[in-house]
Write a structure and sequence with these properties.
The chain has 8 helices and 14 strands. By secondary structure, the protein is α/β, with parallel strands linked by helices. It has one domain: Metallo-beta-lactamase, Chain A (4-Layer Sandwich). A hairpin with a 4-residue loop joins strand 9 and strand 10. Helix 7 packs across helix 8.
């Protein structure tokens, strides 16, 4: 299994960067987890959009889904030109209903509504969805190839749900949005602080934590230091182009 970080910023990307977008690969299977601002532009550096087997959107905040509009137009163009005959598989939360209904109405996309506990197989990867605690309906995604288990939190507050979903994963990709000094804001906005993400990872079986979803203006080194004050296993700080094999 391989992970390629396309973008890791929230709620907007610095110049030349992208918001949340993560390409998970296994054998011939390519799944794009989230596609926020700038992801499609950056994605072309690493893979042709036509080689994506499925797109999963964790929730309908623009830094996680807005480039799905661009992907839709790419698929439409490929179908009109005769380069593609089948729509792209896309997994979306059912709420807000107006956003779900719009994408579900498009001939270019084969949309499946995400529900907690839903399991689905794409190529060599088994997916399972876990509802998280956030300001909109949001899901974490567990993926497994039978030997390695990977969990991506999407956006979430600290909760029993995210702790349970992360507990048995081998690899964790967790949002670590907020410094401890801003923990009151984290509680209001329902995001994880560095310490909370570190506690989730430390109490799981995972031997690797990939920290992501950084706010421009924060010192990444300080985020890393705060995580490492609690988390004692291997840590990678996400950045565009980070490529990991596990």
């Amino acid at each position: 299994m391989e992970l390629l970080v396309i973008g890791c910023w929230a709620p907007f990307p610095p110049a030349g960067q992208a918001c949340s977008g993560y390409l998970l690969k296994d054998q011939q299977t390519n799944i794009l987890l989230d596609c926020g601002h700038g992801v499609v532009s950056q994605l072309g550096k690493y893979i042709d959009l036509g080689d994506i087997d499925a797109v999963v959107i964790s929730h309908f905040h623009s830094d996680h889904y807005v480039d799905l509009y661009a992907i839709r137009h790419y698929i439409r163009s490929a179908m009109v030109q005769g380069h593609r005959s089948k729509p792209l598989k896309v997994f979306l939360p059912g709420k807000p209903a107006e956003k779900y209904d719009y994408f579900a109405s498009l001939a270019e996309l084969e949309v499946t509504e995400i529900k907690s506990g839903l399991c689905h197989v794409i190529g060599s990867l088994q997916m399972k969805f876990h509802e998280m605690l956030h300001t909109v309906t949001s899901f974490g995604i567990e993926l497994s190839n039978g030997s390695t288990s990977f969990f991506y939190s999407g956006d979430t507050a600290f909760s029993a749900e995210v702790q349970l979903a992360a507990q048995n994963a081998d690899i964790l990709l967790l949002e670590t949005s907020i410094l401890m000094k801003d923990s009151a804001y984290a509680q209001q906005a329902l995001h994880l602080t560095t310490r909370e993400a570190a506690e989730i990872a430390q109490n799981s079986r995972a031997e690797l934590l990939i920290a992501t979803h950084f706010w421009p203006g924060y010192d990444i080194n300080l985020l890393e230091q705060e995580i490492m004050s609690t988390y004692k296993k291997e840590l990678k700080m996400a950045h565009s182009g980070l490529h990991l094999t596990f």
